[in-house]
Every structure is written in structure tokens, then in C-alpha cells.
Amino acid sequence: MRADARRNYQRLLAAARAAFAEHGTDTPLEDVARRAGVGIGTLYRHFPNRHALMSAVFEDAVADLLARSRALLDDPRPCQALVTWLRAIITHASEYRGLSHALMSASHDDSCALRQCSNPMRSAGQALLARAQRAGAVREEVSIGDLLQLTNAIALAAEETPDDPALADRLLTLTLRGLTTESC
User: Which residue of 45, 94, 158, 175 shows the fewest CB atoms closer than 10 Å?
Assistant: First the structure.
């Protein structure tokens, strides 16, 4: 990438992060381009669609979640490790209004950039889930796809109920009671 293209790319990411944090992930892309001081064509040259931009914006957070999952693989309590990671996912999905909805809709579209970003998350979560299942703490029929959809649904419910900050944790606790064979 040329130096000016790299600068535009970085300005677009910074503008998108700010716009998504302030107005949610459905912020008009024209507003993102305007904040970055570039034209909409420049935005689309770097990011062909909203999901590609979102994927790039959340790349650092995904890297952090992946690192966290690797660290949790050494936790002597497999079920608690899985729960800790699921809570981290809910926290991440809750940081930007609209992100959990986008992640849920992207989970069934293999061509979507957000889906491509979620593949490493699925693998990381599968490793944690498999440990908890081998330990007999989580039911065998539970899949990582189910857990990721549930965490996004919980984040979405919490997003829609901002006056109840404990809602996400309560919903995750209720969900886990149905998935686990013991108390996590």
C-alpha cells in the first residue's frame, strides 16, 4: 500500500471506531468517510462493504479475545474458563450498538467479512467448549455455534435494555444452567 493509502486506511479505521462507538454500527458510511476526511469512493476502495469495515475495526478486539481463549486453556477449571471467555465476548459485543445484531446475521453467510473474522473465534471457543465437555461440565449436545449465537443474543438483549446493567450476566447465568451438568 502506498503511504497515502495507508494513511487513509488508518484514518478510516479511526473514524469508524469513533462513529460506531458514538452512533452504533449502522452509522452511515458517508459519515465515516467524512469524519476521516476522504470521499466515499476511498472508503469503498479499502472496504467494499460495511461488514468488511466492521471486521477491520474489530480486528484488535478479536485478537484480544483469541489470546484470552489461549490463556484460558490452561485454567484448571474448564467450565469456568469457558464462562469467563463467553462473558468477555458479551462485553465486546456490547461495546458497539448494533454489533451483536450484525454478528448474529453474519453467522450464516460464509461470504461475509464478519463471518470470516468469526472463524478463528469459533475455533478458539470450540477448544474451550471441548475441554468443558470432556470434564463432564457441559452437555455433549452443546455446540460452539449455539454458544456464540446465545452470547450475541444476550448482548443484543442487554443493548436493548440499557437501564439494567446486570441483565447480561443474569441471562448468561440462566443460559448456563441449561447447558451445564454442574454449577459453573
Answer: 45
